[in-house]
Amino acid sequence: MTSVTVHARIQVSAETLASVVRNAKKAAKERGGKADPAETLNDMITRFLDVKGFEAFVEEADNYGTETERS
What we know:
The protein is 61% helix and 0% strand. By secondary structure, it is mostly helical. The longest helix has 18 residues, at 14-31.
């Protein structure tokens, strides 16, 4: 399957972002490298979308629209 890189804005809590930064730094330290929290977040979201079946989710017309519109 061919993939493309998409730049999108998402909302995450400050606590989530702090956790990503903290754990990215910890993992980098263990590997003897430098942390890149933004790339770590990118990788985590990409894996999450793959594991949680984003391909199937986007095929469902009912999943389109804003949260307000779906309520």
